[in-house]
Amino acid sequence: MQCSSVSLCKSIPGRVRLVKANVIDRRCLSSSGSLTIVRREEGVEHITLANPKTRNAMSLDMMKKITEDISRAGEDKNVRTIVLRGEGKVFSAGHNLKEMMVETGYDYHMEIFNTCEKMMQLVSQVPVPVV
After folding, report:
1. What does pTM read for this prediction?
2. Torsion sign over Cα 49, 55, 59, 61
3. SS3 36
4. What CA–CA distances, in Å, run from 70 to 1, 56, 67, 116, 126?
5. Are 57 and 48 in contact (CB under 8 A)?
6. Cβ atoms of residues 117 and 67 within 8 Å
7. Which of 26, 35, 50, 112 has a 20 to 30 Å separation from 6 between CA atoms?
8. How far apart are CA 12 and CA 83, in angstroms?
9. For residue range 27-77, what is the model confidence (pLDDT) as tens digits?
């Protein structure tokens, strides 16, 4: 069964849809609504931050998803390069400051910063260029 729309994809987690020859679209992977859209075309993995309502703010979940997407692409021998982009008017507004309020606590803040550090290190360590 192929996904025919994003809403159908959400109901079938883990499905990958072939959009056209040599193009893979992984919007279907997130059952809670995609924070990223991953598309491969001719060896180029396009990872699009897909939360324009927040100006693609780097929430903890967004950073975890980006890290997962970059890691998966870096391990794939068919990927020659990774392109990061943002949906909407801006690439990213930066950290989601709403997650960094006093009420969320020190441990949660450290999880955010540690996840961000892991994501940034991965960008420089993945075996293919990241643009």
Report:
1. 0.74
2. negative
3. strand
4. 27, 17, 5, 13, 8
5. no
6. no
7. 112
8. 26
9. 433 333 689 999 999 999 999 999 999 999 999 999 999 999 999 999 999
pLDDT band at residue 126 using 50, 70 and 90 as cut-offs: very high
Task: Return the structure tokens found at 27.
Answer: 């919007």
Q: How many residues does the chain have?
A: 131
Dist. CA 44–CA 83, nearest whole Å: 7
Rounded-to-integer distance, Cα 79 and Cα 63, Å: 21
Burial bucket for residue 104 (CB in 10 Å: 0-12, 13-18, 19+): middle
Nearest in space to 65 (alpha carbons), one of 47, 45, 44: 47
Q: Which residues of 81-101 are buried (b: 16+ CB within 10 A; e: fewer)?
A: ebebebbeeeebeebbeebee
Closest by CA to 38, choosing from 24, 59, 56, is 24
